What does this fold into?
Amino acid sequence: MLPTFALARPSTVDEAVDLLSDDHVPYCGGTELLLAMRAGLLRPEALVDLKRVDGLGGVATAEGRVTIGAVSTHAEIATDTTIRGSLPLVAEVERGVGNARVRAQGSIGGNLCFAEPKSDVTTVLVALGASVSLRSPTGEREVTVEDFLAGAYWTVREPDELLVGVHVPVHRDRRGVYLRYQTMERPTANVALLAEPAGQVRLVVGAVGEVPVARSYQDLDDVDADDVARSVDPIPDLTGSIEYKRHITAVYVRRAVDRLRAVLGTKTQP
It folds into this structure.
């Protein structure tokens, strides 16, 4: 059973921000939050419902990046024409998030703020160099997603801050792939690998540890899967031991490299 709590329903961002505190937490889809409350892990005095707040949804393009409203659901993002055209890797990942209920109800802002270590979304956003805007009573700040994620279920968001948008840079000549290994409801390991037009490579491994691990290389040939596996800090759980997760990491990094070579039309190195 859910613990007793009050429900606030602001209609503007300023109203919502003024309500936030340690015991008044933002709520939209609730796919993660309500489960934590049912388990007794969180007991807020009040939930601040964001579903009626103007200006927190939708997708817009400006100054070389796409901005996704915090309350946009995974299903909305997956089918949005701007996302599919400018950020196809984001659309691909969002199509595979959770199950149909989670995709229809869960929001990108909630996904980021809950900081679930086994998130598909955070891994690809870190790889793409995405950032988030955080609004508080004193102003607004922007933080990269990589810096926003401080640990398992822990972010740098202050109690009086509201995540209002996600900003993703658009590089039309960038190519990328995303792979995941899944044995239960959530991925055991996931890998995002991007190639810039000049040849530089961005690799991010998620799900195995508390936060995604990002690496940059001058060339795809420089990616060493065994070295990457040694650099991650896996959390042993029901999906595998530390050694097993490092093994899976190496396997999927190699597969990602091969997949990206195929996308780029380059030959596999001996």
In short: The longest helix spans residues 242-264. The first strand starts at residue 6 and ends at 8. The chain is about 35% helix and 25% strand.
